Amino acid sequence: MTVTAPEFAIFSEGLTKRFGQQTAVNSIDLAVPSGSVFGFLGPNGSGKTTSIRMLLGLVQPTSGIVRVLGERMPDRLHTVLPRVGALVEGPAFYPYLSGMDNLRRYDSADRYATSRSRSARIDSALERVGLSNAAHKKVHAYSLGMKQRLGIANALLRPRELFVLDEPTNGLDPQGTREVRSLVGLLAAEGITVFVSSHLLSEVAQMCTHAAVMSAGNIVAQGTLAELRGVDTARVRVLTPDAESAIETLHRLGLVAERSHSEGTATWVLAPVRDQAVEPEIIAAALQTAGVRIRAFSVEEPSLEERFVALTGKGFDVVQ
Amino acid sequence: MLGAVALIPILLAIAVRLSTNTLAAGEGPPFLSRVTQNGLFVGFTSMVVAIPLFLPLTIGVVAGDTIAGEAGQGTLRYLLVAPAGRIRLLLVKYAGAAAFCLAATLILTVAGLLIGAALFPVGPVTLLSGDVISVPEALLRSLLVAAYVSLSLLGLSAIGLFISTLTDVPVGAMAATVVVSVVAQILDILPQLAWLHPWLFSHYWLGFADLLRQPLDWTSFGTNAVVQLCYIVIFGALAYSRFATKNIQS
Fold first, then answer.
1. ipTM associated with this complex
2. Which of A115, A285, A295, B179 lies in the 20 to 30 Å Cα band around B210?
3. Residues whose CB is less than 8 angstroms from the CB of residue B201 and which lie 6 or more positions away in sequence, other chains included
4. Same domain, residue pair A146 and A250
5. Is the pLDDT of residue B217 over 50?
6. Are residues A250 and A206 in the same domain?
7. Contact flag A59-B247 (C-beta cutoff 8 Å)
8. What is the 3-state secondary structure (H, E, C) of B178-238?
9. Which residues of A are less than 8 Å from B85 in CB distance?
10. In the predicted structure, residue B184 carries a pLDDT above the cut 70
11. How far is CA B207 from CA A9, A143, B48, B185, B214, in A?
12. Are A43 and A163 found together in one domain?
C-alpha cells in the first residue's frame, strides 16, 4: 500500500511547553514543507531545543499537537522515529567503546532495523562522514569534530525521510563543514526533508530553502528564505563627506535616509528602497547632480543577520 | 566488580589457612569454624559475609546505573530516539541487573568451591541437622544457595531501577540504593519494628540456611520468592510510571 507523503514533514499547532511557572515554548505553529531544507533559528534560551525534543517524543507537550511525517507525536513514535535521523544537542557516545561499536549499539537499540544489514549499513554511514579509518578507535580518543561526524553517521544508519540536525557543523573543520553542506544538499535532492537548527546564519542562508525564527518561546517569523530576508526591501548605502546633501537628495527622490557610522571624514548614509521604487542608476545620477561626493555606493539586499537581530532583539542576555 | 566478588572467598580461605588460631564454636561468622575441616564451607561462609553489605553494594552500583548512567552520559536520548521504546529499555536494563545478581552469586560460589578445594580437605558434608551429605549433593546445595541469594537481590535491583529513573546522576542513584539496603537491614534489627520485619526485602536474605538441612526445607525459599516478586512488581510499576512520561532533558 503506497501512502502519499504528507505536505508537511513537521506540523505543529499551538505547541506549548511549560516547566512549572516558566513557559519555554509558547503555542508555536511550525510548518515544515516536505522536501525542504528548513532552518530553525533563535537565540540561546529561545525554546528551540525544547521544541526539537518535543518533535522527537523526548519531552511531553503541555498542550497543542505536533505531527511528524503526518503522524501524531509522541503517540506514534514507534512508527515515526525509525524514519527520522536525529542529532540533538550534540553527539553522545559510550567513551569506552569504539566508534563502530557505538553505532552497532545504537542500531541494535532500534528494533526496527534489520540485523543482517547492520555491518553494511554501519560501514556505509562511516564512509559517508569520512570516519572509516577511525572506526576502531575508542570514542574517548575522538576529537569534537570526530564525535560530531559520528553523530551524523548515527543519523545516517538507515534510509530516513526526515533529518533533525541540531548544530550539525559544530566543531567541524572547513572540509567537514563543506561535506555536511553537500550532504544536506544531496539529501534534499533525494526529496528528504532536512530540519537544521543553527546559529550560523550565513550557513542557513546558504543551505536552507525555508526558515523559522524563535524568540522567547514564540515563532516570530516563518516562511521561505526570500520572504524572511524581505527581498522586497533593498537598501542604498552611500559613503560621502556630504552627508546632509545626500540625505536631502534622497529625500527629494522619496526615500527616507538616515546617517549611520562614520569612516574617517565621510559618513555612511542608508536608505531603504521598497519594491525597487527608484532604480540605483537614478539615485547615483541624482546624487552626482546635487554635487554630493561619493566615496562608495551600493544597493544591497538585507542580510539574514540583520533581519534576525531585528526579530530577536539586540540584547545579549538570555531571555529566560 | 565481579573480580572483587571473587576475591572474598579467596581472601577468607587464605586467612583461615594462614591463621593458627582455632575458633571456639559460635565465634566468627557462621560456618567459619567448619572451614578447616571441609573446604566446601568456604562458599557458604563467604556468602554470609558478603550478603549484608558487599553484595547489596555491587547490586546498588549496577541497578543505580541502569537509567541514570545513560542519562548522565547523554546516550539516553539517542537510545530513545533510535527508537528503543521506554518499556523495552526498562525491561532490558532490569534483565541486565538481574543477570548481574546471578553472575555475582555464582562467581562467589564457584570461587569459594575452588579455593576451598585447593586449601582444605574436601569430603562429605555434615549438615546443621547432623545428617551427612555426599560431595556432589553438597555442590548441588551450593548452587541452590547461590540461586537463593540471587533471588534475594532481585527486589533490591527493582528498587535500584526505580531510583535510577529519578535522577540523571548515576552516583546519586547508586548511593541511594545502597542506603536503602542498609536502612532496611537496620530496621530489621530493631525489635520495636517486629511487625515490619516480614515485609522488608532484606528480611529473608540470610534464610538460605534452611537449604542446608536434611530434608531440604523450601519454606524460606518460597517466602523469599514471594516477597521479592512483590517488590519487583511494585517498584517495576513505579519505575514505569515515572519513566514512561518523563521529560528527557539529558
1. 0.85
2. B179
3. B152, B155, B156, B159, B184, B227, B228, B231
4. no
5. yes
6. no
7. yes
8. HHHHHHHHHHHHCHHHCCCHHHCCCCCCCHHHHHHCCCCCCHHHHHHHHHHHHHHHHHHHH
9. 78, 111
10. yes
11. 60, 53, 10, 14, 15
12. yes
- Apex CA A211: angle with CA A208 and CA A217, to 5°? 145
Confidence of residue B244 (pLDDT cuts 50, 70, 90): very high
Task: Please state the domain count of chain A.
Answer: 2
The answer to whether A230 contacts chain B (CB < 8 Å) is no
CB contact under 8 A, B249 and A106: no
Q: Please check the confidence at residue A229 and state whether its pLDDT lies above 90.
A: no
Mean pLDDT value across chain A: 89
Record the cell numbers describing residue A47, joined without a space.
Answer: 525554546
- Do A96 and A33 touch, CB atoms closer than 8 A? no
A135 and A50 assigned to the same domain? yes
Instruction: Please give the average per-residue pLDDT across A256-264, as a whole number.
Output: 87
Q: What is the pLDDT of residues A61-88, one digit of tens each?
A: 999 999 999 999 889 999 999 999 999 9
Query: Do A253 and A211 share a structural domain?
Result: no
Which structural domain, as residue segments, surrounds residue A157?
A: 8-229
Residue A146 lies in a domain: yes
Question: Is residue A161 assigned to a domain?
Answer: yes
* A315 part of a folded domain: no
For position A141, what pLDDT does the model report? 96
Residue A261 belongs to a domain: yes
A111 CB within 8 Å of a chain B CB: yes
Which residue of A16, A71, A110 is the best one to mutate when testing the B interface, meaning the one whose CB has the most B CBs within 10 A? A110
Distance from A70 to chain B by nearest Cα, in Å? Answer: 17
Residue with cell 513557559: A23
Whether A151 and A192 map to the same domain: the answer is yes
Model pLDDT, residue A5 = 67
The Cα of B97 is separated from the nearest Cα of chain A by a number of Å equal to 18
Residues of B in contact with A109 (CB under 8 A): 79, 82, 84, 89
Which residues, 6+ apart, have CB-to-CB distance to A91 below 8 Å?
Answer: A147, A148, A150, A151, A154
Average of per-residue pLDDT across B154-178 = 96
- What residues 12-71 of chain A have any CB closer than 8 A to a CB of chain B? 53, 56-60
One domain, residues A212 and A199: yes
Task: Give yes or no: residues A249 and A110 share one domain.
Answer: no
Q: Model confidence over A111-154: pLDDT tens digits?
A: 888 989 999 999 999 999 999 999 999 999 999 889 999 999 99
Yes or no, beta carbons of B78 and A60 under 8 Å apart: no
Cite the DSSP H helix spans in A13-94. 48-55, 77-80
Tell which of A229, A264, A279 closes a domain: A229
Question: Do A58 and B77 count as a contact with CB atoms less than 8 A apart?
Answer: yes
> What pLDDT does residue B23 have?
61
The partner residue sitting opposite A109, judged by closest CB among B73, B79, B248, is B79
Of A229, A247, A265, the last residue of a domain is: A229
Give the number of other Cβ atoms within 10 Å of residue B119's Cβ. 17
| Contact assignment for B83 to A57 by CB distance below 8 Å | yes
Size of interface A-B (CB pairs under 8 A): 62
CB within 8 Å: A60 and B245: yes
Number of residues written out for chain B? 250
Interface membership of A243 toward B (CB under 8 Å): no
Q: By CA distance, what is A152's nearest residue in B?
A: B78
